[in-house]
Amino acid sequence: QVQLVESGGGLVQPGGSLTLSCAASGRIFDNYRIGWFRQVPGKERELVASINWSGGNTYYAASMKGRFSISKDTAKNAVNQQMNNLKYEDAANYYCKQEASWGQGAQVTVSR
Description:
This protein is mainly beta. It contains no helices and 11 strands. It has strands at residues 3-7, 10-12, 18-25, 33-39, 46-52, 58-60, 68-73, 78-83, 92-98, 101-102, 106-110. The protein starts with a strand and ends with a strand. The model has no long low-confidence stretch (mean pLDDT 94).
């Protein structure tokens, strides 16, 4: 089972940018999708974006289109998520997922 570790979370002002990274230990098989999810207390975890490891096909939730960009770094066995024009409602704990494996989460705080 692959181990996933997120990094890159932090505090950002509204309108700012952050890049999250999800590093995988172990082989990511070509037909797997890697997804970024987010969760705030009291709400269900929601899918933000995902990418197919082999073909690079991407998916974005509607509210993230045009602001978030997911990409893979095959050299580092990692999936990155560039987040631009962050809004207050983007504040959450962000998790990456591949099949049944979840990372521990990276906190994103949006505040002045």
